[in-house]
């Protein structure tokens, strides 16, 4: 087998391979013999079909199969021979496939870059030094109250914070439009669900009152058919309810899963959750700094084929989240390219770190991660079993764990500077 290689870019290689005709014919003969042992032809007993007849009937098909298989197998042999590490499958172009010729083809592919890690030790990072205070817990409990409001009917003019139930009917230039009519629509004034001009128009009305209002739609309104136009609405307010926050009593605690211990137990559990979330957020910030520094110190040429594959995965995931029903609804590739390139580059750098430092997956951490993932389900054991029986799902968990181990390694070697911060600063809570 003859091999020649051309470097067409930093990572792309063009390789021409020639496979001797004798090897082709030998492979064809061996496959025809296997076919002859199993093929059924009218007039012949199984396994007794003459080789000549087998060749007449199946020779052309077998030849195509052999040529295809040989291009794949000889490519693998060639890259091993030349000590190349392809990043993805090749694009193969047959050059010579005649019956009396050597098999010749051209394979174009990308290789993984050679990575020499630099400046891994001593990366400088800033760690937010924050704690959960009693005031933070107070604010979080207040937020929980805001999530479970009660509403009481009132006989007064409506104002911000009230829930208003109404019927409305609108027109633009005397014609109805999509969304112009509603019955028993409940709106929290000041909640941002309706246009500010609409809310301002009905503010001050009492239950039973009617009013005609004009509502201009902004020029940048998301519906182009309404953008920049003015609608006339007839509004009938049917009910006004005043928002009331629930008392911090046993009933409130039970709504958040605290059956015993009352408000003190609820506050304790809230504080524990806040500390856990704070720790996770701080670690996420440190990880971001570490990986940014790793990338900055190690600019890496990445195979386009790997970036394209990552982009496709991101497109599919985005389409799934949006509930896309067919390929026409898959978002365009461009917005994902830079993120995909970063992911591929980080994957290569982290892979080199894992290899060079001899890191092995911590099975105890994998078990702990599986237990954590399963903890919110009614039957955690069944979920853990399902993960272990699904190779792809388990591999994803293992990848997360080994990445955490790499981050731990980098953090151990990093120069960490603590910076005073508050829970609100770190979590963007209440901003």
- Spatial shape: elongated
Q: Label the CATH architecture of the largest domain.
A: Orthogonal Bundle
Helix content: 40-55%
| Percent of sequence in beta strands | 15-25%
Round the Cα radius of gyration to an integer and report it: 34 Å
Please, what is the oligomeric state?
single chain
Mean pLDDT: 92
As for the number of domains, it is 3
SSE string: EEHHEEEHEEEHEEHHHHHHHEH
Number of helices: 12
Structural class: alpha+beta
- Total number of beta strands: 11
Q: Which residues form runs of ≥5 with pLDDT under 50?
A: none
Give a quick account of the main beta sheet: strands, pairing sense, barrel closure.
Answer: 5 strands, antiparallel
CATH fold descriptor of the largest domain:
Trigger factor, domain 2
Distance between the termini: 68 Å
CATH class of the largest domain: Mainly Alpha
Question: Would you summarize the structure shown here?
Answer:
The protein is of the alpha+beta class and 431 residues long. The protein is built from twelve helices and eleven strands.
Outline the structure in words.
The protein has twelve helices and eleven strands. It is of the alpha+beta class and 431 residues long. It has three domains: 2-110, Trigger factor ribosome-binding domain (Alpha-Beta Plaits, 2-Layer Sandwich); 150-244, Chitinase A, domain 3, CATH 3.10.50.40; 260-427, Trigger factor, domain 2. The strands form three sheets. Strands 6, 7, 8, 9 and 10 form a five-stranded antiparallel sheet that branches. A hairpin with a 4-residue loop joins strand 1 (2-7) and strand 2. It is elongated, with a radius of gyration of 34 Å. It starts with a strand and ends with a helix. The mean pLDDT is 92.
